[in-house]
Amino acid sequence: MDFKSLVNGIRKGEVVTSAALLPYLCLADGKERSDANLKLAEVYADIGNLTQAGVFIRRSWMLSGFSPDILPLYIKIHAGLPDIDAIRAAYKEIGMAEAAKGNVAQALSYFNQWQYAYANHLSIDKYVYDFDVLACIRKMAEPWRFEGYAQKDPLSDRKIRLAYLVFGALHVNSVLVKINCMLARYHQKDRFEITFFIPDPQRSVDNSKQAKGTIRQLRSYGCNVVISPNGSNLVNRLRAVASQIFDYQPDILITSAILAEFEHYFIASLQPAPLIVGLIQGPPQQFAAPDMDWGISWSKHPLFDAPCNGSLVHIGLDLPDRESIAPISRKDLNIPDEARIIMSGGRYVKFENLDFWKAVHEILLRFPDLYYVAVGVSKEQLPFLDKLLNSDLSQRVMLLGWREDILSIFCLADVVIDTYPSGGGHVLIDAMALGIPFVSFENNYMKNFDQTDWSVADEFVSIPELIIRRGDFEQFNNTISKLLDDVAYRRRMGNLCREQIHTSMGNPEEGVRRYEDVLVDVLQKKTAQGATHGKGEFPTLNSTWEKLKRILSGTIRGEGRA
């Protein structure tokens, strides 16, 4: 039987033996064999046999030399299985192949998809280091790496120049940008000269209300802002950003999220500054590269697993003032005046745990006048809720999506409950500052950091009554119930939260002084070494990267030249 007839037979549900397929699976020409496997993968995927389709698509993918044309079907089949590790491997393979051809923009794009495979296909914040990928990006940057420069004037005779590489300028309500603005506000301007570099294109910034507001704010604090030029060629734009930084001649380049988008790592790999310091503000795999000179972490657990030297700095924040916030109307949310309200906030991926929703379900059953409001997630993002909540309960669950007026909404809350197993940070801080008691879970410091399974509340305040044993939802609901039933207790816990968070986090100026001291200390150590950075030598205070380069020297494919 000819191959087309075999494929049509499979599509119709006929049983086709392996013997019938063997002549086409044994074709001498590799391309023809790849095409035959591709067609078999397509037909088995169409009839829903993804396991068999996976066999054929992996073979076709390998025989094709990792062809971009095959990638969409490869991803579709493995997403359906689901086999996210296979998807990540494919993105890495094709990224490496594009890098070997000198296609930097395509390689970075595939590496970004590799980085976010778990988030895109399973909606979970899981990230894993791959030092092959990082080495490949550094190799791609090598042809354009800047020659070193040495500062002529001693540190004692001038201001220290800081260059910030901004991540998330176009994002709505970016916590990372808020931290940039807080640092800008409280930096000692008589000691530091500060410039923020925005790598997003000028036209994108011009069309972003959020970005324009951020720029105005940074400039109002006496800082300079430099925006990337326009241009359709990504590599030229990234090189232009690095040139802007290099021309500024900073003492330190500070990254906000060096591995969250690999364009930022490419810029850093061009070595536009003699010292690279990364702010570790989340998963190390997104925020801490092994070849950074230093990392500064705001919390303990991410620092544990950062593959570089680093410091823990307890930073303060500009806390919201309840008196200056106009609460949203209950009528706007269709909530009765006499109802009690519990709230949560965060990205939608923090709301996907079924045990958490079972706990919410139980507490809603216990209190018929209780409403649950979640900010940052929409009903469409949680399709499983229809089966969990009956029509009466679902009317008391408000999923508001992403909002800019979250503080006005929080003013209505009697209690804020933390998301689980990935807890919140700024959400809890804001709630405590508003005098709203929270209920969260303790963190497990005896395991590797996992963004999908950690809570940070115990680093902000010490209120054992409100921080529950991890995963103990019975205690979780009992604590919420006590807060709802006992108005005096709830008020007392709210006041305690406000007092402790103001003591712990309410002095951002002091926090920035501690942060600045770390920057100066790292810079002085570097200066004492008498080192300058030059072509082919990434500046580092440790030998981590050099060891990695020796280990990986035989695994990096291609010259990375464009």
Explain how this protein is built.
The chain is α/β, with parallel strands linked by helices and 562 residues long. It folds into three domains: 3-143, Serine Threonine Protein Phosphatase 5, Tetratricopeptide repeat; 147-316 and 510-552, Rossmann fold (3-Layer(aba) Sandwich), CATH 3.40.50.11380; 323-505, Rossmann fold (3-Layer(aba) Sandwich). It contains 26 helices and 13 strands. The strands form two sheets. A seven-stranded parallel β-sheet has the order 3-2-1-4-5-6-7, with helices on both faces. It is flat. Mean pLDDT is 92; it is low at 531-562.
Protein topology:
Elements (H helix, E strand, L loop, with lengths): L2 H9 L6 H8 L4 H17 L3 H14 L7 H10 L3 H17 L3 H12 L1 H6 L8 H11 L18 E6 L9 H12 L5 E10 H5 L2 H12 L3 E5 L5 H15 L3 E4 L6 H8 L6 E5 L3 H4 L6 E4 L2 H5 L5 E3 L17 H4 L6 E6 L8 H13 L3 E6 L9 H4 L2 H4 L2 E3 L6 H5 L4 E3 L8 H8 L4 E4 L25 E2 L4 H13 L1 H19 L2 H21 L15 H9 L10
Parallel strand pairs: 1-2, 1-4, 2-3, 4-5, 5-6, 6-7, 8-9, 8-11, 9-10, 11-12, 12-13
